[in-house]
Amino acid sequence: MKEKSEEQVDQWLKKLERESWQLELLVSAFTIFLLLGAQQSFGDFIAELSHQVYGYAGFAVFVLTMIQASIIALTAFLIIHLLLRGFWIGAIGLRSVQPSIDYQKLNYSDLFQEKLKKKLIGLDRLVIILDELCSVIFSVSFLIIFMIFSFGLYFLFLALFSALLDLLFYFKIVDFAWVRYAGIAIFLLILLTGLIYFIDYFTLGFFKRFKKLSKLYYPIYRFYSAITLSFISRSIYYNLISKYSKRRIRLLLTLFLISLMAGSLISFDQYKFFPNVQRDHVFVNNYYDDRRDENEFVEKVSIASQFISEDFVSLFIRYSVKDNQRIQSNCPDFTPLKTDGLNLSLKFRFKNGLNISGENFEEEDLDQLLGCLSAFYEVSINDSIYTDLNYYFAEHPAKNQKGIQAVISSRHFIEGENTILIKQKYIDGSDSTLVSKDFARIPFWFSGMERTERVVPSPVEKQGD
């Protein structure tokens, strides 16, 4: 096949430039439709993942949150682009009917006619400016996405490097002090060089301007171009900063970053007599199954309803993986079969020789697991501590969240308002002291005097005794 000449390629590209607005409109409209539909599902996925992971695995949530921010930014830019393209099409349509302003028909004074002639932009010029602006916004929207995505990839790289160091020392692959110090030094070096790279990126090439400094910066530039995948958007980036004023682009990027930070730190709120923080006097709908949305997670604990009339009430306490270390402090001599993180389907145990099996927990293991988990919580109702509750492993119907569940008899409830107070108890590793802190407070109202004979003596321990 005969290759096209440079002139033919140039003509083809110019034709694409003239007709690119049609593709822009189609892509913008279709992409906005998809993004608006995907945002809710993506947010639900992040919420579900954030309830199941923490630590280094939690960096995945951070990266996904950055991607979600990219989706929101792209949607906003594309909506602006679509509106401006509509304005542009309207200007073209008006130009076909009225190509220029007839100032005589306006019948204005000479003063206003002179001012309008100087200030107003002609339709020809307006159409050209709008077309250029729309094309730039369309390109910048994807550039902003790659910038946010690159930022997330950088932190993911940090997390993976930190996790690798922890694995090396956890499995005792290396156990030398100098390796640990070298790892910390490399981690700090990544932080410093990453900061230098982002400064250069957002200042539009500050370190590239100086001859000697650029030679030192070039290896950093190549390394982070690969890590953050910024080479994908590099052509758009350099074309933009070579065509338009760098000062204006810096101003635009600064305003964008400020708007992001302001959006996360500032909110409009006129409910000045209503607290933002959940305290004792705040009614939390999430604590009740019949008041919590079916797609919502159990944040801490849950009972069936705020109004109880049955003989028993079921209390579910969600197991948060963030508490693993504190739960372990209550059972220092017990090591669960599963590790915190990746696990093999086969388990190796040394008990009367080497045993290789699947994840089969013996009754003794289950009792110890349940004992460690339940000892982490202290349940009291109306200032009386319940020390004889039988706990069971359970998965809540809402999102199959893991936790423990206990069934409490209502024979010791009082008519009217009752309060369940749940505390977390653990050994503080710093000074080996027992720490007890409030975890959740659930008010509920009991009505059952006509069915149940109230028994005053309670088989529970009064707080303070």
Can you tell me about this structure?
- With 465 residues, this protein is α+β, with helices and mostly antiparallel strands.
- The chain has helices spanning 6-50, 58-97, 103-106, 110-119, 123-170, 177-202, 211-227, 234-243, 246-265, 324-329, 363-374, and strands at residues 301-302, 307-308, 312-318, 347-350, 354-357, 377-381, 384-385, 391-396, 401-409, 416-428, 433-446, 461-462.
- The strands form three sheets. Strands 2-11-10-6-7-12 form a six-stranded mixed sheet. The chain has a four-stranded antiparallel sheet with strand order 1-3-9-8, covered by helices on one side.
- A hairpin with a 3-residue loop joins strand 4 and strand 5.
- Helix 5 (123-170) runs antiparallel to helix 6.
- The radius of gyration is 32 Å and the shape is extended.
Largest beta sheet, briefly? 6 strands, mixed
* Regions with little confidence, pLDDT below 50 for 5+ residues: 452-459
What percent strand? 15-25%
Element-level helix/strand string: HHHHHHHHHEEEHEEHEEEEEEE
Structural class: alpha+beta
Number of helices: 11
- What portion of residues is helical? 40-55%
Widest beta sheet: strand line-up: 2-11-10-6-7-12
